[in-house]
Amino acid sequence: MSTARNSARSTVLESEEHQALRAAVAALGKRYGRDYMTRVVADGGHPDELWADAAKLGYLGVNLPEEYGGGGGGIAELSIVLEELGAAGSPLLMMVVSPAICGTVIARFGTEAQKRAWLPGLADGSRTMAFGITEPDAGSNSHRITTTARRDPGSGDWLLTGRKVFISGVDIADATLIVGRTSDARTGSLKPCLFIVPRDTPGFERRQIAMELQAAEKQFELVLDDVRLPADALVGDEDAGLLQLFAGLNPERIMTAAFALGMARYALHRATEYAKERSVWKTPIGAHQAIAHPLAQSHIEIELARLMTQKAARLYDEGEDMAAGEAANMAKLAAADACVKAVDQAVHTLGGNGLTKEFGLASLIVASRVARIAPVSREMILNYVSHQTLGLPKSY
Predict the structure, then answer these.
(1) What pLDDT does 240 receive?
(2) Full DSSP string of 145-194
(3) 47-62 as b/e, with b when 16 or more CB fall inside 10 Å?
């Protein structure tokens, strides 16, 4: 049974439109596959052809408003696209950042001018936007963000100063949506604001971070040295604070879950196909319970994580921000754990072959850890659930 048929059979809770979208994206992903992505990474390039085809078919902007060239859907549809491309071995990490985070924030809170300037390009793939929140001294504690934004009294311009790390795709993005704060960092009060910083803005510098992770999307450290921005670079209300920030962070968690689910499904598919054919004694190794049961367990964990991801996406798309926040964190944790276990078991199933380039699994050992680490660690998610959901006292 093909991956696409497995996917359709396991999504009976989805609408016919969603199942049709899965099948169509799976067909696109199959045309490219893992070999394509491996070749792009080895050449130091970017998956421009896949990005362009996904854009042409309307997949990249499926979550953005129709009046700005999008598909009029939501994070539920966009997460399906990313999951299915990942299941084919060719995920597009910038989908997590450009249409999901930046596109959503601008669509919800941007001015009319910002929407017209950015959303059509984000929807058709001709423009991309990175997202800059992580800082070297803040880690998972967003309350320690020290990038400051202050007004120039004379001109009304904004001046941004600070540093960011592990920011994906800045080299190919037309701009970066930077999270700063308008209050003095020393006061301890968090008042986050979001600013669109074009790539070539004076004082906006980047340095690539050397990574063991093999991916087309590179990671960067950013330095903002009194970066001058016009007043209309601010997205949304200066006093809206966390509401606008989490309008982007919840989709990020849901999309990270989708990214992990796709990777997990790819690894599990390679392992099961191998286990059906590989014979060491008289029967295929998949007949042995020591091989079959862990793979079955991975399938179960993937399906459970997918259900929570679907729940989180639906809650977010229905405007239930608080409930979506809880579900998005749970989905991200469950999908990340399922992904790590699936990749590990797939490599173990193939033995030495699992470490060869031919089967394309070894590189996933590192890649699968990304979902556990970013955009928030599993420990911080457990902290969130323990005190937000269970009402336990905070430990920090």
Answers:
(1) 67
(2) ---EEEE-TTT--EEEEEEEEEEETTTT-SEEEEEEESS-GGG----EEE
(3) beebbebbbeebbbbb
What six digits make up the tokens of 292? Answer: 């079959």
Both tokens of residue 349?
A: 């199933």
Residue 238 has a CB neighbour count (10 Å cut-off) of 14
- pLDDT tens-place string over residues 303-330: 999 999 999 999 999 999 999 999 999 9
Q: Dihedrals φ, ψ of 234, to 5°?
A: -70, 130
In this predicted structure, what is the pLDDT of residue 396? 80
SS3 string of 104-125? HHHHHHCCHHHHHHHHHHHHHC
What are 158's strand-pairing partners? 151, 229
Are the CB atoms for 159 and 227 separated by under 8 Å?
Answer: yes
Asked if residue 5 lies in contact with residue 34, where contact means CB atoms within 8 angstroms, the answer is no
The rounded distance, in Å, linking the Cα atoms of 388 and 190 is: 19
Burial-class residue 1 by CB neighbours within 10 Å (0-12, 13-18, 19+).
Answer: exposed
Per-residue confidence (pLDDT) for residue 353, from 0 to 100: 96
Q: Crossing angle of helices 242-277/75-87, nearest 10°? A: 30
Residue 1: predicted pLDDT = 39
Per-residue model confidence (pLDDT) at position 245? 81
Say what angle helices 362-373 and 321-350 make with each other, to 10 degrees. 160
- Residue ranges of the chain with per-residue pLDDT less than 70: 1-12, 139-140, 183-190, 240-241
Instruction: Pull the structure tokens for residue 77.
Output: 């549809």
Q: What is the pLDDT of residue 243?
A: 77
- Identify whether the C-beta of residue 344 lies closer than 8 Å to the C-beta of residue 297: no
Secondary structure, 3-state, 339-385: HHHHHHHHHHHHHHHHHCCCCCCHHHHHHHHHHHHCCCCHHHHHHHH
- Side-chain half-sphere exposure of 318, counting CA atoms within 13 A: 11
**Count of beta carbons in the 10 Å neighbourhood of residue 201:** 17
Quick: pLDDT tens for 98-134.
999 999 999 999 999 999 999 999 999 999 999 999 9
Query: What angle, rounded to 10 degrees, do the helices at 75-87 and 289-317 form?
Result: 160
Spatial separation of the C-alpha atoms in residues 390 and 396, rounded to whole Å: 16
Is the Cα torsion angle 10, 16, 17, 20 positive or negative in sign? positive
